[in-house]
Amino acid sequence: MFNCPHCEKPGISPLRKAILSPGLIATCKSCCGTSGLRYSSWLTAMLPGSFLMIAAAFMESDPVVWSLNGIGLILMIIIPFIFAPLHKEDWWNLYALYSYDFFLPAKPVRPIRP
Ligand SMILES: [Zn+2]
Predict the structure, then answer these.
(1) Which of 21, 28, 40, 99 lies at a 20 to 30 A Cα distance from 86?
(2) How far from chain centre, in Å, is Cα 1?
(3) How many angstroms does the Cα of residue 110 sit away from the middle of ligand 1?
(4) What is the Å distance from ligand 1's center to 100 Cα?
(5) What distance in angstroms lies between residue 26's CA and the mean position of ligand 1's atoms?
(6) Would you list the DSSP string of 38-60?
(7) Residue 79 to residues 26, 76, 83: CA-CA distances in angstroms?
(8) Residue 90: alpha-carbon gap to chain centroid
(9) What is the rounded distance in angstroms from the CA atom of residue 55 to the CA atom of residue 21?
(10) How remote is the CA of residue 77 from the centroid of ligand 1, in Å?
(11) 3 state SS of 3
(12) Residue 45 neighbours by CB distance under 10 Å
């Protein structure tokens, strides 16, 4: 289990962390707080695996291509799983991160929650 950034208790399951990517959130089993990955740390963690897969495209022999692709895929799962840190996240943060400012000249006011 991974520690939740809200309550610091182990509340995020390994499977959830493994399939987490920017724009998705994980919900803590202890406090129901939501957390996610930052795009920059996720992208950095994907670089070594991506590099191997791109290198595989320039190789001639099949075993080398399959090995590089296989290792690249494994690295693209394992490195973010271990090294990309969880951050506090809520739906409003996701909206603010991934909304298209170009189409929204003024950001809506954050609604007041009870
Ligand atoms: Zn929590």
Answers:
(1) 99
(2) 16
(3) 24
(4) 30
(5) 10
(6) -HHHHHHHHHHHHHHHHHHTT--
(7) 18, 6, 6
(8) 15
(9) 24
(10) 24
(11) strand
(12) 21
Residue 13 Cα to ligand 1 midpoint, Å, equals 12
Q: How far is the CA of 29 from the centre of ligand 1 (A)?
A: 7
Residue 6, judged by CB atoms within 10 A of its CB (0-12, 13-18, 19+), counts as: middle
Q: Confirm whether pTM is higher than 0.90.
A: no
Q: pLDDT by residue (tens digit) across 8-21?
A: 999 999 999 988 88
Strands of the chain, DSSP E: 2-3, 10-12, 26-27, 34-37, 86-88
Digit-coded pLDDT (tens) for 51-80: 999 999 999 999 999 999 999 999 999 999
- Between the CA of 34 and the centroid of ligand 1 the distance, in Å, is 8
Cα distance between residue 48 and residue 59, in whole Å: 17
Distance 31 CA to ligand 1 centre (A): 4
Q: How far, rounded to the nearest angstrom, does the alpha carbon of residue 109 sit from its chain's CA centroid?
A: 27
Instruction: Give the Cα separation of 96 and 23 in Å (integer).
Output: 11
**Type of residue found at 18:** A
